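Sample entry (142 residues):
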Amino acid sequence: MSAAVAMGQPRETRLDRVGIPYVLRWGFVGVLVFMIGHGVEASLVAPHIGAGLRNTSVVPTIVAAYGVTVIVASYLSGALSDLMGPRRVMALGFAIWVVFEGAFLYSLSLRSIPLVTTSRRHRPLVQPRVSVSPRRNGLRRT
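Predicted structure, serialized as tokens:
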């Protein structure tokens, strides 16, 4: 038995050794699943956007703008969940996501490139990524 375990300190896990705190393990799994979903969605939706707009040259720009917005949303979600609480952020995010998804589908039917770009670009801003919030998981900032 090591000295750390004898003194009541938690045992270091394999995840701790690679830099993933034990309390965040399921948060990292959730982010992994979301990121896989974004990749699959981008590859499945891109041809339909091009066909719906009858203009395939703008599709890479729309997909890239979506990816950049995902990065910003990932950064802001922890701070928002600290301010508002994770449940409120998730509920608000879901409600606004439904609005942007509807706007995206409607703008595709109109074949409007600016509306498709705007609605698709802003949709990931509201996706609930609160799994990495330090306060929610009992971690303190140093």
